[in-house]
Amino acid sequence: MSRAFIIVLDSFGIGEMPDAKRFHDEGSNTIGAVSSSSFFLTPTLQKLGLFNIDGVTASVSPISDPKAAFMRLSELSDGKDTTTGHWEMAGLVSTKPFPTYPNGFPKAIIQELEEKFKRKIICNKPYSGTEVIKDYGDEHIRTGALIVYTSADSVLQIAAHEDYVPVEELYRYCQIARDVMQGDNGVGRIIARPFVGGTGNYKRTTNRHDFSLTPPKDTMLNILKENGKDVISVGKIFDIFAGSGITKAYRTINNDDGMEKTLELQQEDFDGLCFVNLVDFDMLYGHRNDIDGYAKAMTSFDNYLSKFLRGMRDDDILIITADHGCDPSTESTDHSREYVPVLFYGHKVRPENLGTRAGFDYIAGTILDYFKIEDSRMTKSVLKEICDV
Questions:
Q1: Residue 355: what pLDDT?
Q2: pLDDT, averaged across the chain
Q3: Of 184, 235, 266, 373, which residue is the least packed, with the fewest Cβ within 10 Å?
Q4: In this predicted structure, what is the pLDDT of residue 96?
Q5: Crossing angle of helices 291-310/255-266, nearest 10°?
Q6: Taking the model in full, what pTM does it have?
Q7: Alpha carbons 219 and 247: distance in angstroms, whole number
């Protein structure tokens, strides 16, 4: 049996891309900001060669003998969001950006949603997820109206108090919104944002759920599944791909839970891919401009990573990467258009500096190559450069 693991450090970009200005992200450098914190301690990632990657500017030095192969990837898709980044690393490049709504959703959409929800909608603005429940939570409870808001990303988010709108009912509203938001209004994700608490003390819960568009074409996941391979998702991978191409899914409540589940899966016999997303870096720290919180989360991941490396089997391959940036040191609280790191590690992987390359889809091609699956849609691969195959 052959096993591959992809761990996505959600939002851990490594410096602005050449076209960052078009996205208003000049100067963004997530790794630089996070590594400046005194709480940032990542000896395992340093040992693998994270800080040896071309162009990395950080407060941690490169080492002379990195243990992994590594490279820097630029994004081909026209975007900087979670869905676009993950779809591209699975081999699907998005040439058309998902729609965004900097002034809120059009009146016609809100009216259609209200009719189908049989509830009124309040807010309808770009908003911070923590601020929106503080500002609209009381009105939501008093009137029963749903809090609908967006951000700079292609998302429609619905917040509701769990005591007044049960979680399953909120999910039903989100599915209705997903069915409505198609075509030209096909936002990347509809996100359920349940919360609890009382006036002045509202708090979001871990029952978030994303309702993504189904990828318009087959991805690496579909190809693996069609070839009889296991495709196991951990975290929000299932949501990002709307379940397409996934054979088994494990939901998580935070990064540590995600790594605990990954370590458990590492002990199992499966033949295929385990695809992991660690969303806290983005959701809890990047968007909230919390440098120290991000750094602490990276330190915790590094500790888990050390355990994971010790448990790898002879034929296992591990890929560590990211889907975009979210620099917590800039004024913006949104994603940033950055290069992403890629680390390849395994007992049969040769340490190599693979330089800078264009396209997250190198990951898809390398994975298919690893499983000896030929597909003309995904041919970019570095496997022969790092392994004797």
A1: 98
A2: 96
A3: 184
A4: 87
A5: 10
A6: 0.91
A7: 14
| The 3-state secondary structure of the chain, one letter per residue | CCEEEEEEECCCCCCECCCHHHHCCCCCCHHHHHHCCCCCCCHHHHHHCHHHCCCCCCCCCCCCCCCCEEEEEECCCCCCCHHHHHHHHCCCCCCCCCCCCCCCCCHHHHHHHHHHHCCCEEEEEECCHHHHHHHHHHHHHHHCCEEEEECCCCEEEEEEECCCCCHHHHHHHHHHHHHHCCHHHCCCEEEEEEEECCCCCCEECCCCEEEECCCCCCCHHHHHHHCCCEEEEECCHHHHCCCCCCCEEECCCCHHHHHHHHHHHHCCCCCEEEEEEECHHHHHHHCCCCHHHHHHHHHHHHHHHHHHHHCCCCCCEEEEECCCECCCCCCCCCCECECEEEEEECCCCCCCEEEEEECCCHHHHHHHHHCCCCCCCCCCCCHHHHCCC
What percent of the chain has pLDDT above 70? Answer: 100
User: Using one digit for the tens of pLDDT, what is the confidence trace for 190-218?
Assistant: 999 999 999 999 999 989 999 989 999 99
What homologous superfamily is domain 3-92+215-386 in, according to CATH?
Answer: Alkaline Phosphatase, subunit A (3.40.720.10)
User: Which CATH topology does 107-212 take?
Assistant: Alpha-Beta Plaits (3.30.70)
Is it the case that residue 389 has pLDDT exceeding 80? no
Q: What is the mean pLDDT of residues 303-324?
A: 98
pLDDT for res 1: 72
Q: Which residues contact 283 (CB under 8 A, 6 or more apart)?
A: 10
